[in-house]
Amino acid sequence: MTRLRYLTSGESHGPVISVILEGLPSGLSIDIDEINAQLIARQGGYGRGGRMKIETDLITINSGIRFGKTLGSPVCLEIRNKDWKNWDKIMSASAEDETDKKAVYGPRPGHTDLAGGIKYQHKDLRNILERSSARETTMRVAVGSLVRQVLEAFDIQFYSYVTKIGGVGITQEIPAYEQIPGLIAESECRTFDRDAEVTWKKNIDQAKKDGDSLGGLFEVVCTGLPIGLGSHVQWDRKLDARLAMAVMSIQAVKGVEIGIGKSVADLPGSQVHDEIFYDADKGFYHGTNRAGGFTGGITNGMPVVVRGALKPIATLYNPLRSVNVQTKEEFKASIERSDICVLPAAALIAENIVALELADAFLEKFGGDSMEEVSRNYHGYLEQVKNY
Q1: Are strands 330-332 and 321-323 parallel, antiparallel or unpaired?
Q2: DSSP letters along 39-107, please?
């Protein structure tokens, strides 16, 4: 990221998780309720585990915002872990409490435990699993739902939904994007396809009985972006590549596609490339959106479409075999509190992480120290595009 910079901090069972964000212009009106709504939605979804019933994720703003507007200085956000009271000795920063550490010596297949333990020379694998936990995404949702408000001020909107769980995909055609929020509002699986949801819930219930877990696919869509974000001139400035990295950074995501994605390998060029048209009112546009909103790493004015493939959660209640790092003896992997399926949460997490990357590119192009300056730059550019 070039304009925005952020760092998250904290462990899954530590006292707090937090983030510091730098780069927001001053004068942005912040809807704190919207940030909290995104955090609450992240905890929901069919197939979630016991931790979600313990925590109530509500944001505390420690700096950078006054009277509901950004100051232009770094923003610090924090969430306190309610479960900390049960872990204050186990996760203590004090050397005096090490006798209560309850060490974990059994790496869980599919988790970061073993690779991280070897890399950082920790035999107590709790030193790895606490930070590698997807609990870290709480702060990325918080900072994403804050930053996206820059884009929403310019009528740029975000949508996300689940398209497949456990090998069963949707059969209903994707509706008009503006209809999606209403359609998924009552869905426990974050989908508009009610028939698919019925099957998914049955399969999640069965996986729970079997001590197993399920993965799947989600999509994120962003509408209203102008032509020209990102660049073709260097590999690391291609915005679709930056988005792919951002989505791939979400725990358990193993694949990312833009537009029709890997389908391009099976189709002739006539069914892959988007034809160009011109209209006096809206200027140049594409008749289809197979490219998913990008040409040469640059936004082309069409909706950005990003798809992520999420592997099944690695902690299984019917655990797989592993080897104790202390004794080198085989055993059945230990069980931390876990979910059966997290696709609805993953879709929402990805939506906010995509928003972060797109907001960075937006401010990179139209940047100013205040929202007034950003707005002036943005609308001047739109006039330039119109007269091309």
Answers
A1: antiparallel
A2: HHHHT-STT--THHHH-----EEEESEETTEE-SSPEEEEEE-GGGGGTTTTT-SSGGGGGG------P
Give the tens place of pLDDT for each residue, 316-326. 888 899 999 99
What is the CATH number that goes with domain 5-386?
A: 3.60.150.10
Interval 88-147: pLDDT, tens = 999 999 998 888 778 999 999 999 999 999 999 999 999 999 999 999 999 999 999 999
Question: Distances from the Cα of 117 to the Cαs of 83, 126, 182, 217, 322, in angstroms?
Answer: 25, 9, 45, 30, 14
In single-letter form, the type of residue at position 259 comes to G
What are the φ and ψ backbone dihedral angles of 244, each rounded to 5 degrees? -60, -45
pLDDT in tens, 229-287: 999 999 999 999 999 999 999 999 999 999 999 999 999 999 999 999 999 988 999 99
CB 201 within 8 A of CB 344: no
| DSSP states along 115-154 | HHHHHHT-SSTHHHHHHHSGGGHHHHHHHHHHHHHHHHTT
Helix axes 137-152, 343-366, angle to 10 degrees: 50
Tokens 């809206």 correspond to 282
Residue 64: partners with Cβ closer than 8 Å, 6 or more residues away: 21, 24, 70, 71, 73, 74, 75, 76
d(C-alpha 364, C-alpha 385), whole Å? 18
Nearest to 335 by CA among 324, 319, 312, 322: 319
Both tokens of 77, joined, read: 């956000």
In whole angstroms, what is the distance from residue 204 CA to residue 218 CA?
Answer: 16
Query: What are the extents of the domains in the chain?
Result: 5-386
Distance CA 209, CA 203 (A): 10
Q: What is the pTM of this model?
A: 0.94
